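Dear colleague,

Following up on yesterday's call, I've attached the two folding results inline so they're easy to grep. Please treat them as preliminary; we haven't cross-checked anything against experimental data yet. The first protein's sequence and structure tokens come first.
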Amino acid sequence: MKKTMLFFAAMLFSFNVNAASLSLVGADSNAGTVGIASGSVVTSGWSAGGIGGTTINDVFTVSSDVATTGTLSLTFNPLIPNRTSVSIFDGVTTTLLDVIRIGSLGVVEYSWMLEAATNYVISVMIGRGAAGSNYDLRLDSGISEVPVPAALWLFAPALLGFFGLRRKAMKAAA
């Protein structure tokens, strides 16, 4: 019985599930501001307000503490055709992303594998944004936190109870 209890106690402390934690940092010269600074989802955005004709060159650095998939979503309202670009630089190569036009909006959806402890630089460029124009940036790691240790605390006593019932049944049969 002691060995079984020690086994389950060791099992409870050996399981550990960590969700990916993203970090988003904007350059000091950015017009865009970072919303949620870290977690499994990070956001940023920019709005021109009543000012038009503004050129935006925003640069954000994204990193993750573990290797994970990342999905970048950007929405431009309105899209400034031929003057809006988005790219990701991983330290070696630059990937230019396609901005898809949907009515007056521009949308970017891109998924890639983020390596642990690698800084990815996301560049957003808008040439002469119209008054009231804006963009929203969202990066999702695709991994949600799973409370495995809490589930094990509930599962282990039930499992021990089943073993106790089996042992009791075996004694009664003998």
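Below is the second protein, in the same order (sequence, then structure):
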Amino acid sequence: MGKPTLFVTLEHGHHLKSSSNKLDEKFDVHYWPHSRCLSHEEMRANVKGVFGIICTPSNIIDSEIIDAAGENLRVIVTTSVGYDHLDVKTLKAKGIRIGYLNSPAEMTVTVAEHAIGLLFATARRIANDHLALRKNVDFWNERLANNQRYTIWNSAIGIIGCGKIGTAIMKRLLAFSPKKCFYSSREPKSEADAMGAEWRSVDDVCKNSDYIIVTAQLSEETHHLINRARIDSMKPSAILINVARGGIVEEEALVEALQNKKIARAGLDVLEKEPIEPNNTLLSLDNVVVTPHAAFSSSVVWDRILDLTMENILAVYENREMPSELL
């Protein structure tokens, strides 16, 4: 009897290949070989008969994929904290175990740092200035003509979703002496309150903040939480940062607000449809900084991702407790 099969999708296959891992000892590991994200149809064709799938947030694991895999499928491991791309209900009903990252401390730090990086890139016009100077060195002499560079000092910070990542962002931003710090969550958070932050409704955070940073989890409840009405309620000078999930922000409404200067700028690591399409309007706007869902990524985090991914798969193979299982 041959080894059971694992299928590894594009974005993390090369990391597993290049790392020292135990998977090849136990499994026949198939890696998506192309330098592009596989389509849903290609995913369906590649999972037939597999024991497990290692996927990313870009890969939708729905009932079609689960049915295509067949009765051998025992485990899905996503290399992400979020699992909204997985049909959890169907997987649970079929007894298929689910592994995820469960907010490792290393990832909390990197996402917090990336959010702050996006905030400075937009508020201080760092990305714009860099591109302008590359295109035209005379911009050096024109650089003060557009003095719309904002500071964190004496500003109002608003955080939507104050879990581990939101709290980590707050802790770091307080070093820059904002005037106010608001946060929205299901209930008050003692750690945030101890830092002097004020628990407010989502509406209040959107209306009263200079910088709105989205770190909430995506769910049916939070889908389009930052909708057209809330975007329209923001200050004309407001900057929106999203390092959570694209579906939390109503992207069409955000694009229109940015085009019409209803809000000042946005820094986005996540989008409603990923990977981003070349004709996405956001890429043509000069008041947006977009990064490719990379907030979590660092060398330290990759080591942690690989360790957890391998251990989650091996735990199912050996019929033992997974180190990070979605229960």
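For the second protein, one point worth flagging: The chain is about 35% helix and 15% strand.

Best wishes,
A.L.
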